[in-house]
Amino acid sequence: LQRMPKPKPMVGKVALVTGGAGGIGQAIARRVLAEGGCVVLADIDAYALASVEADLAKSYGKDYVRGVVCDVTNEGSVIAAFNRAAIEFGGVDVLVSNAGIASASPIEDTSLALWNKNQSILATGYFLVGREAFRQMKAQGTGGSMVMIASKNGMIVSNQASAYCTARAAEIQLSRSFALEGAALGIRSNV
Q1: N-term to C-term CA, the chain
Q2: Is residue 60 among the annotated active site residues?
């Protein structure tokens, strides 16, 4: 038995990945699948999502991957995505909050619309998916892991990106809040 390969670390685990149809989301999903886990890809782009889901199902098997259209800025959409994960796989063990945008603009040229778009996706969106993951993990009673894909811009500001940097800083603090409240429940949160 000692000569046999060690079991893959994600066997029996379900990861929900927001922004799952994008490049980073796909790479994360492939890693989880390669390590033996199941993946729920959540993305706002239904066409790209269907394509990525089909590609991953072809490579890893249709029983291991599901796609769900999800707008992380819409509370009902986020709740529906987690409900779908519960129906398809019994729940979520890992959240990878990855949906995002990038923007740049001098402060005096930053429109309220650009500011709000950054806050909506990168701060509110991360809160909504994090809260639903936290609720589901708490109800399951088996702990869990939350990974917030942030940016160096959340720690060190860059020129002409105030809306982006501020929203990324919010993600970092939000992750710390989830970690603090989740510690007693075995729920970890990292950036």
Answers
A1: 36
A2: no
Closest CA to 79 of 14, 18, 128, 124: 128
Please pick, among 60, 64, 126, 164, the residue that the annotation labels catalytic: 164
Q: Residues near 47 by Cβ (< 8 Å), separated by ≥ 6?
A: none
**pLDDT by 10s per residue, the chain, length 191:** 789 888 899 999 999 999 999 999 999 999 999 999 999 999 999 999 999 999 999 999 999 999 999 999 999 999 999 999 999 999 999 999 999 999 999 999 999 999 999 999 999 999 999 999 999 999 999 999 999 999 999 999 999 999 999 999 999 999 999 999 999 999 999 99
SS3 142: coil
